[in-house]
Amino acid sequence: MTDNEDIRRITILDTTLRDGAQGEGISFSVQDKLAVVRALDELGLSWIEAGNPGSNPKDAEFFELAGGFKLGQSRLCAFGPTRKPGVKAAEDTQLRRLLEAETEGVTIFGKSWDLHVTEVLRVGFEENLAMIAETVAFLKAEGRRVFYDAEHFFDGWKANPSYALSTVKSALDAGAEVIVLCDTNGGSFPGDIVEGVAAVRAAGKEPSPYLGIHAHNDMGLAIANTLAAAGAGCRHVQGTLVGFGERCGNTSLAALIPSLELKLGFRCLPEGRLPLIAETTRRVAEIANIPLPGAMPYVGSSAFSHKGGMHTDGVLKVSRSFEHIDPLLVGNNRHLLMSEVGGRAAVAERAKKIDPSFAKDHPVTAVLAEKLKAMEAEGWAFEGADASFELLVRRELSRHTGRSGETRRPLFKILAYRVVSEHPTGETIACSHAWAKVLVGGQEEIAAAEGDGPVNALDGALRRALTRFYPELERVRLSDYKVRVIDGNAATAAKVRVLIESTDGVNTWSTVGVSEDIIDASRAALVDSIEYKLIGDSEKLVVRSEK
Questions:
Q1: 58, 90, 128, 421: most buried by Cβ count inside 10 Å?
Q2: Which run of H or of E encompasses 145?
Q3: Which of residues 401, 426, 447 is at a domain's end?
């Protein structure tokens, strides 16, 4: 590695399993933590801060299991405080537990703000400096690579610059490999970050790969502050992949790393790993059981979505006219939203997934565009229901072109259905019952099901009736269900729009239905969901047989 390459290298420490676990609604099991470590290691992050072995039994159990865990790219790091006041480092219980975790790296946090020294720790300034120095020296002597988190550094530097800098010097002189400047309360601006980093550099040694940044998002500036710190010389960055963490969260590494690599020319991941970042972020969010924000930069489902006709037309002609990067660089995809403002170019582009010869001047394009406008005027919305839109395209192609591949018979037909809900008094739990009669290839089937609600019951009855003919439907389940009243002025006679998300455990798709009757709207969305699954599976079989 050349000196210039070393200057452009930034080591990334992910603290999803420590700081991220302090976020509201986040609770990792030991197996969850192991799954997150696997995902982050595959992405190729330098360090994974996996928890505080001295804080709770769960973290202690994790580190016991992690001892035999083979990692390819990442290294584990345990987290803990400096020694207690008046206690020798070698006799401090928490420090002993950090050593017992047997991680290559250890992150120690100490006080940089004089307010915390006198009012929180309630010790003298010299004792705080001794706690920092003795802790770092002890762990260093035990063969650990020590990262020192200068907690509340920027608040401390503003309040008492000389003392804040003395805490940093204490850790550095004791052998800390990296000094991490923390904006713990998330109250700093990028200018504050730049000035604080410059002050530490001026008081220390050059160059400054020993400096790091740990930012919180309380003002929505965590990423901006981290980028400012990198520009000012920090070569170690901490954050959580998805961005969750205490209060408003931490720096989102998924939104930060692409900017560092693609915009600023830094190297954060091993070569070829950046396209994994979107999928890895979704995996970590799923393990944490939180929805990944659609508008999350780079990796969200809306990050490269286009709805307006002029935007869609422009991005299809010259992608960089409305996209700042190629979405494939981060493992994401362009998403053209179907709506009355989308234009013919968007319709044609989406239709190409079904018929590669489809073009903007295809005779069905105008028909689809006009039908889309008419249906959306009636309350339909396809921008969040890709599967329903694809089925609409297929039906129009079948109706207007007569292509053999599109003129297939209906996969099934609902002949009749009924839904009954019971709301008994007393302690008996309310439930719903449904039965459905379907026709498949000239054969009829009737099935019934019970559910927590009418839609759940109807879904169960439909799939039970159809599973005899299509066993693959056993794997399908509803993963989300949304209802919106379209015209509130019509009161109880208003139309409702139902959006259903379905999954087979591998793929996820969304469908829509509209009606004055919420059950009928749900039925339309359910039928689309089942048809989309069956058509997709049948086409995969055709492809495999052709191979």
A1: 128
A2: strand 145-151
A3: 401
C-alpha closest to that of 372 among 347, 353, 345 = 347
Specify whether 211 is located in the same domain as 326: no
pLDDT, averaged per 10 consecutive residues of the chain (547 residues), comes to 64 96 92 93 96 86 84 95 95 94 96 95 96 97 97 97 96 95 97 96 71 97 98 96 96 98 96 94 89 90 72 67 87 67 63 71 77 79 80 81 51 92 66 92 92 88 93 88 72 76 85 91 94 82 38
Distances (CA, A) of 334 to 31, 72, 284, 306, 388: 34, 31, 22, 8, 18
Q: Is 179 helix (H, G, I), strand (E, B) or coil?
A: strand
432 three-class SS: strand
The helix (H) or strand (E) run that includes residue 397 is helix 386-401
Strand 508-515 vs strand 496-503: parallel, antiparallel, or unpaired?
antiparallel
CATH assignment of the domain containing 167: 3.20.20.70
pLDDT for residue 508: 84
Q: Which domain holds residue 396?
A: 305-401
Distances (CA, A) of 537 to 42, 381, 521, 542: 30, 25, 25, 9
Q: How many CB atoms within 10 Å of residue 545?
A: 7
Sign of the Cα pseudo-torsion (56, 174, 216, 46, in order): negative
Residue finishing a domain among 288, 314, 342: 288
* Domain total of the chain: 3
pLDDT of residue 3: 44
Instruction: Write the CB contacts of 252 (distance below 8 Å, at least 6 apart in sequence).
Output: 217, 222, 223, 239, 240, 241, 242, 243, 296, 297
Distance CA 39, CA 280 (A): 6
Report the alpha-carbon distance of residue 362 to residue 196 in Å, rounded. Answer: 60
Predicted structure pTM score: 0.71
DSSP 333: -
Q: Which pLDDT does position 364 carry in this prediction?
A: 78
Q: Say which residue the tokens 């770092």 belong to.
A: 136
What pLDDT, on a 0 to 100 scale, did the predictor assign at position 531? 92
Question: Exposed (0-12), middle (13-18) or buried (19+): which is 401, by Cβ within 10 Å?
Answer: middle
Distance CA 327, CA 320 (A): 11
Tokens of 92: 């401090």
Residue type for position 251: T
**Cis before residue 356, ω within 30 degrees of 0?**
no
Q: Please answer whether residues 450 and 433 qualify as being in contact, where contact means their C-beta atoms are separated by less than 8 angstroms.
A: yes
